[in-house]
Amino acid sequence: MAVPYQHLTIEKKEQVRTMFNNIAPRYDLLNNVLSAGIDKVWRKNAIAELQKSKPKKILDVATGTADFAIAALQINPESIVGIDISANMLQFGQEKINRLNLQNKIELKEADSENLPFAENSFDACTVAFGVRNFGNLQKGLTEINRVLDKGGILIVLEFSQPTNKIFAAFYSFYFKNILPMIGKLIAKDFSAYKYLYESVQEFPFGKAFEAELTKAGFSSTTAIPQTMGICTIYKAIK
Fold it and tell me: Residue 187 maps to which CATH number?
């Protein structure tokens, strides 16, 4: 199992918490540098898929600094709750929400995707942007999301995957494995965090394999929509 810090003996979940607490001050800057802004296009496309179901109550799991939650307000839900295990990431997210005066629309909570502090059928949509790779137990996290979704509720997952074009895949892999961790070390002072990003993407069950995980967790009507030659994928699933 890919973990951020190979020298530590604590479980993956706690390593992920530590990693995001460490890189939180530079997280948004690094995202912009490393993706050249294309992640904003992926979020826009994911939100367009979410909008088709016109959800009113949205849960954003692994919300981080709340970028996806803030962007999702454009579809005019009644409320959005964002949860994350990293207190530092949530702090930066809350600062954004306060600056934009969105406290009446978005609520952030420190919580674990594998033990969501909500009753069954609490939300009619759930989103996870670049977070399912970091679940300590993927099936447990997906099953918990299924539990808190109302019947007929939609799950939208945006996650890195692996390009199928061999030439592009070779370039992508080289950048991800060699260049990205060095940039991470330079800006965030954490080489291991961005080395983990490459390793976790390589390990993650993308495409049909992830759709199978969704089905196993109780979802139906799963769909995978590749983005930018397969660099990432939007997954849709219905409870």
Answer: 3.40.50.150
